[in-house]
Amino acid sequence: MKKITLLLLVLVTLTGTSTLAGNLWAFLTYASFNSPEGPYVETYLSVAANSVKFIQKENGKFQATVNILMTFKQNDEIKAFKKYELYSPEITDTLKTDFNFIDQQRFPLPFGSYDFEIQLSDQNKTQQPLPYNQTITVDFPDGKPAFSDVELIKSYKQTTTAGDLTKSGYDLVPYTFTFYPPDESKMIFYAELYNMERLLGKDQKFLLSWYIESFESNVRLHDYGKARKETAKEVNVLLSEIDIDNLSSGNYNLVLEARDQQNNPVAVKKLFFQRMNPKAQVALADIQSTNITNTFAEKISQSDTLKEYISCGYPIATGIEKSFIRSSLKTADLKTRQQFFYNFWFTRSPSDPEKAWLAYKEQVYKVQVNFGTPVKKGYQTDRGRIYLQYGPPNTRSTQYNEPSNYPYEIWQYYTLNNSQRNKKFVFYSPDMVTSDFLLLHSDAIGEIYNPRWKIDLRNRIYSNRDLQDTQVIKAWGDFEQDYWELPN
C-alpha cells in the first residue's frame, strides 16, 4: 500500500477548520496486485465527513456527495478512468460528523508506468475541483517470487458473497493511512505472494515471516513479528495482524519476507509507516538482563560520560530506544546505562559492537565541529541528525546571502537507506544569527514534507498567508529552485 498524499482541496484557513473553511479533506493510498486475469491497482480513498456539506433528503436524513474523477494515462493517452459520485452514510445530525467515509476502486492495468490523476469536488458546493497527479508503476517480475503491495486493513470478516471489498474469501475494510495514532492498538494487513510454486515446486515448504523494523537503522524489533511454514502455491495469501499497543512513537517499516529451505530470502516487501504512542512503556527488565561482563561498556565507569554517549545515539535510535533515552536515561543507574549502551551497539553489530561505536563516535565529533552551536550539540541539530542518520550528502549547496531568502543549504543523497533514490533536504536559518539551520523540507520518506518550502524560505521579505499557494515569483539573485533541481 503506497501513500499518495493528503489532499486539501479548495480553501484552507490558518486555523485548519475544515467546515468553516469550506475545504474538502481526503486521504488516498493505493496498492497493486496480480491475478490470473492480469494485474490491477486498487485505490483507497478516505473523506473527512466534517469537510463536506450535507443536504437533507426526502426521508429527513442528511447525506453528502463527492464527485470523483480518476484517470490513468500513458503518453497522454487515457488507459483507464472512472467518473462517479461517492455518497456518505446518511446521518440524522449534521453536528455529528466526526468520521470518515471510505471508497475503494479497482483498475485492471497492464504492466507499465502511468500518470495518475484524481479530481475531487463537493457536489453541494460551488467550487472547482483541484487535480492531484502522481506516477504509479505496475510491475511484477515474470515467473519470479514477488509480493504484492501491502494493503493496510481497518477490519475484516469472512464472507461467502464476493463484493467490492472482497479478497481471498474476506471482506477487507481498508485503513487508508500510514500513520497509527495512540488509539490504534493493532496493525492489520493483507498481501499476496506470487510464484513460490514455480520456484520451489508444488507443495514444497518455505518460511513466511512478517515483522516491524526501525526505519532509520533497519534494526528488527523481535517483539513485533511472527513466522510460519507455508506450502508453496501459485498465490500464497497473508492476512495477519501485529499488536502495536506498546510500540513506541517513531518511523518504522513493516517487512514481509519469504525464505526457501536453505534460509535464503527469495522475496521481500517493505511498507513505511509512522506510530504516535506517548503511553508506550520501556521494558527495563529486558535491558537489565543484558550481560556486560568483560565488555567495552563495562569499562566506561563515569556515569555522566556514559549518559552523553547514549544521548548522542538518539539520531539513529529505534522508537523504543528513543523512549528510554527520553524518559529513563536521566534516572537510570550506572549499570543500567552500561547495559543499555552495550545492547544498543550489539544490536547493530553483534560481531564487534565496540568497533561500531567507535566509528559512530568519530561521526559525532565531525557533526559537533561542523554543526554544533552555542546552545546545541552537533547531534542535536537538524543537520547533525541527518548527517548521523544518513551519512554525508553527495552534494551540499550553501547559500547564505541571497537577497530575498533566508540563509539555506540543500543536501542531496544519490541513495538513501539503500532504497530511496535522489533525495534532498532543505535547511534554513530563520533567525539569521546562530549557525543552527532547521530542516525546512525533504522529499525523503519519514522526513518533513513542506510543499510551501520556497515561500517559507522567502518569508524574510515576503509573507503569504494562502496555505494553498506553493509557488513564488522568481526574484533576482535567488537560486533555490536551481539548487533544488541541480545541487552542486
Account of the protein in words:
The protein is globular. Helix 6 (334-348) packs across helix 7. It has helices at residues 18-21, 196-200, 284-288, 303-311, 319-327, 334-348, 353-371, 382-390, 453-457, 480-485; strands spanning 2-9, 24-33, 40-48, 55-56, 62-63, 65-74, 77-87, 100-108, 112-122, 130-138, 146-147, 151-158, 166-167, 170-174, 179-180, 186-194, 205-214, 220-231, 235-243, 250-259, 265-275, 395-399, 408-416, 420-428, 438-442. Residues 5-22 and 464-470 have low confidence and may be disordered. It contains 10 helices and 25 strands. It folds into 4 domains: 1-139, Immunoglobulin-like (Sandwich), CATH 2.60.40.150; 140-280, Immunoglobulin-like, CATH 2.60.40; 284-366; 393-485, no CATH class. By secondary structure, the protein is α+β, with helices and mostly antiparallel strands. Strands 11, 12, 13, 14, 16 and 19 form a 6-stranded antiparallel sheet that branches. A 5-stranded mixed sheet has the order 15-21-20-17-18, with no helix packed on it. The protein has a 4-stranded antiparallel sheet with strand order 1-2-3-8, with no helix packed on it.
